[in-house]
Design a protein that fits this description.
The protein has 290 residues and is α+β, with helices and mostly antiparallel strands. Helix content is 50%, strand content 14%. The strands form 2 sheets. The chain has a 6-stranded mixed beta sheet, sandwiched between helices. Strands 5-4-7 form a 3-stranded antiparallel beta sheet, with no helix packed on it.
Length: 290
């Protein structure tokens, strides 16, 4: 597997292949401002010495720390261009993990579970760090016949191991129970809701309207959506609209055309949401991408 030297390149490869990608970074790539991605991310710190802001919560970044970033969670690594900070970043397509999850084994649990004292961060022991790097080494080894299957197998083994460590920490903290089995009915409901949202981004999408459309109470809808995806409905809708806006701006559409085509009711809300998520205004983003 190619190990990229740019986080943006790894994210792009992950989204294009709908699988996973890895980047090995130092201080040569200036960090993005507070941003969101349409994928999971795993940050592993080799050298430490930085701070991580994830959904308005600050974490220290020490050697051996690993961070699990859920889909659409805003995050920001501070001042990476000033001090060398060696790290490994994995970008993972959520649907890829769901495809290999089972009723008893949820591979996305380490991303979606947030009822823990340690939040997004785990501090790996020296032995756990060696195990993590062992899998990264397996992913980066050159292979010939069967390369795709071997890489996929190594990555799934890594995700099983990280979830095992995550669950051990959960039990040690005694803050959460083992993951409950989600009913098939819940999964089907959430898949239907996600499909509906994705097909109707230009429409007015409120919790009340979604609840009415699917014959659910608003509180129940919010609960099962958060339990299944790890994020809120409003955050998901905004993130999908921002993702679509970035695509349209890159294709040459004007800012005025873009916000209307993404379902934002007015320019002010679009400007505020886009700038908060991407770190720059839509107009500047369009200038950089064209």
């Amino acid at each position: 597997m190619i190990i990229y030297n740019s986080c943006k390149s790894a994210i792009q490869a992950c989204l294009e292949t709908k699988t996973f990608a890895a980047a090995h970074l130092y201080n040569d790539e200036k960090t993005m401002s507070i941003h969101i991605h349409d994928c999971y991310e795993i940050y592993y710190s080799i050298s430490g010495g930085k701070q991580f802001l994830i959904d308005n919560r600050f974490y220290d970044f020490r050697p051996g720390d690993i961070f699990f970033i859920n889909q659409f969670e805003s995050h920001y690594l501070s001042q990476i261009d000033r001090v060398t900070h060696e790290r490994i970043v994995l970008s993972v397509c959520p649907d890829f993990l769901k495809r290999f999850s089972t009723e008893n084994t949820s591979l996305n649990y380490c991303f979606t579970c947030r009822d823990t004292a340690f939040g997004h961060k785990l501090s790996l022991s020296p032995e756990e760090q060696k195990r993590f790097l062992y899998y990264i080494h397996k992913l980066s080894q050159p292979k010939d016949f069967g390369q795709d299957i071997l890489e996929q197998t190594a990555f799934l083994e890594l995700m099983i191991y990280l979830n095992q460590v995550f669950l051990i920490r959960c039990e040690e903290e005694q803050k959460v129970s083992l993951p409950k089995k989600n009913s098939a009915a819940h999964s089907e409901q959430i898949n239907a809701i996600l499909s509906y949202v994705n097909l109707n981004l230009t429409e007015e999408l409120t919790i009340q309207k979604l609840a009415s459309h699917f014959y659910l109470s608003s509180s129940y809808l919010c609960k099962i959506f958060k339990d299944e995806t790890g994020t809120t409905i409003n955050r998901y809708i905004t993130a999908k609209r921002i993702t679509r806006a970035k695509e349209l701006l890159s294709e040459g559409y004007s800012v005025t055309e873009t916000y209307a085509m993404c379902g934002f009711q007015d320019y002010s809300n679009f400007l505020k949401a886009f700038t908060k998520a991407v770190g720059i205004s839509p107009k500047k983003y369009a200038m950089y991408e064209q």
